[in-house]
Amino acid sequence: MTELTVTAGKSNSNNLLRRDIRFLGNILGEVLVHQGGNELLDIVEKIREASKSLRAVFLPELYEEFKAMINSLEPGIRHQVIRAFAIYFQLVNIAEQNHRIRRKRDYERSAGESVQLGTLEASVKDLKDRGFTFVEAQEILEGMSLELVMTAHPTEAMRRAILDIHKRIADDVMQLDNPTLTFREREQLREKLLNEVITLWQTDELRDRKPTVLDEVRNGMYYFHETLFHVLPEVYQELERCLSKYYPEHLWHVPTYLRFGSWIGGDRDGNPSVTSDITWETLRMQRKLAVREYQRILSELFKHLSFSTTIVDVTDELLASIQKDRLQVTLNKTPKWNNEKEPYRVKLTYMTEKLHNLLDESKKDTEERYSDVSGLIEDLKIIDRSLRHHYADYVANTHIKKLVRQVELFGFHTATLDIRQHSQEHENAMTEILANMNIVSNYAELQEEEKVKLLERLLNDPRPLTSSHQEYSESTSECLEVYRTVFKAQQEFGKKCITSYLISMAEAASDVLEVMVFSKEVGLFYKEADGTVVCTLQSVPLFETIDDLHEAPEIMRQLFSMPIYRQSVAAMNDLQEIMLGYSDSNKDGGVVTANWELRVAMKQITAAANEFGVKLKFFHGRGGALGRGGMPLNRSILVQAPQTIGGGIKITEQGEVISSRYSLKGIAYRSLENATSALITAAIQARLNQGYDSDEEKWEEIIADISETSLNKYQDLVFREPDFLKFFKESTPLLEVGELNIGSRPSKRKNSDRFEDLRAIPWVFAWTQSRYLFPAWYAAGTGLNEFYQNNEENMKVLQDMYENFSFFRSLIDTLQFAIVKADLTIAKEYANMCSDEVVQNRIFEQIEEEFHLTKAMILKITGLTEILDNAPALQESIRQRNPYVDPLSYLQVQLLAELREIREQGQDDPILLREVLLTINGIAAGLRNTG
Q: Whole-model pTM?
């Protein structure tokens, strides 16, 4: 297993990638022989060679021989073959990630004074070259905002233990580039990697149980501890360096524009395990992480701040602060520093003790701990000023400045936690509460207009709706307790710990107002005596379906026109957050319509907000897979219409995307650097009114027509074909994906078999596993062809749009990526599992016909001979990966058929199920995008 070459070319850098893959492949080969003998390695190699031959030249007889070889494997050896291919992909992925870091370093080393595209320096240089003044550059920075929100969406198929091994292997493989290693050291490095791969082979890839919510919280916090606490401030430092280089006459302190948030422990939509107690514990864990990080950094700082008053003069301000600490703080957990001539170390002991006391409930509301982050920042600035006083500027810039930035970014809460719940839960609770108060007997049955009038009146009425003496159902009690927890959290952890309450499936203004009424009950929303509205928790509608996107502009216009609501937005700095769902809109209307309707909705909602002087922050609920809006972070920013990003952007980071972007510091830095560069580029475009061609209005009319045709084609099959759901369930591993134990959340919002209740993640995951990638491309070809109609003039219009309209180009390139990853030859094997042959043929023929039409339209529009000819490195990577994924797919089909046959007889086979789940993991690693 040594021949996978991911990137074409003869450069030394690419040779090193091939070296790493060959090196790791050889080690895996040794492990296979060591664990299973030469027979295992021979079988794996035979399957690999046959798969490569079949990809090179498809011959029916060779195809049948290949399937027969797969089907003839004995269960014992089959299990090991699956794991061999799956682990091989894990190693290849590690090599590719390392290569991305190496490539960047190689460029920086060889470029000299030249500036690499996509870097922070390139963006700042562009600002200067375009004639932007210091004031204008400062305004751009102050207007930028990007929040990346980690979620626990179940698309990360790997266990934490496996990811830890990957991290160790990645660190060791990087050492292969070290030219100072001796022969013996290289041998030792090889032995170490051999041990790691053996450990990987002997570690179970599968979880023995579903993770708890707190397990997921710990997993999310891992990335803050490992990379983000270190990398995020480095991005800010580099941006300030570049600004100082091109605008040297000014001192720069970049405002906080890039930060992280989280849903993990706050997202209760369809997950009964996320309770108010869990949310509170999540916040405690996040605080503990932040405090421990600061304590660790202060401990390191202690080594550097050995300055003695026998040599330097520190400031009186520093000495006074130490004296104040002595009077207020007792050193119980931090050893006292007895050398009074080293005042910085004395100061640090008291700072460390005050951090310790943040985790001690008995010290609450005392001067022995920091009341908020401003106290810690002030202590650091006292040290900073004193260091500069005796000309230790370099120490201040290197250590103190970075720590101040870390505290500004992470506070005492690490990440802002969002709360999310389904709108129906709020309506149910409101119905019960209002009935108990004899305000209305059945709130749920009111017309929307009546609901809005009632809720508006309740918001203006200072009297409470609930009482501690009143008993409520368990669900209503929990609903209310969530708001009490948020109020308590803001008092304990600071106002920034939770600021947004997201409302899933928001379909009307009342869905938003209900959350505000509940907020009023606990003090998160209220009117001062002079009529001023105070609001510390914003109601954030999540518009998910195509119909909801259509209604969204009028819903927001209705809300903004209500004085009490507009005042609540004013209390949040005239900024309204609105979330848009990429997954459910795609599931509802297909890829073309979802992307188009999201764009239209954003522009129309922005126009509505402008009427009322409201700034908008759009929250993009993107997944990692193509069928859920997945794309590189910088592209997801640049694809937005410039006028829609003025109030900032939020984007979800989900599942395998989190580990691929933030496991390694080098890749995390590059991803965040690209994102910052994209923000600056988008701001430049907005100021120069770029990105809007005079033909764009005409092009948008064309896409609207393409979208309508595509929507009808998509819904004809998905919603109006009576046997479609049967085909989907039987010809994909949908049911088995639910047994993978990759998330605490159920795969359905309700215990229902309705398509509407199926979550978008398993929908996309199952289609990806079965190699259709149906949600990422289906119905696009029909929509495009309806406009083309064999008219070459129309084709020239589409080609012009591809060249000059960024939205359309992004759409076509995303379709390219989906088409090249899909494989309908293998998908047909999955289709054969459908129990009704008539249904199977009817539906598969529609999918196959649409696939070929979509591919043909893409090639005509792009002018390419083959899909992805304009991205050869990516094209080659996918081509080279496919022969290694294929055996896992054929094995999965065989195993699914055997397992389902046994289960139909009322029996089960845990070993068969385990093998199915191993193929799911392996295919996920091979295709890189799962859900």
A: 0.90
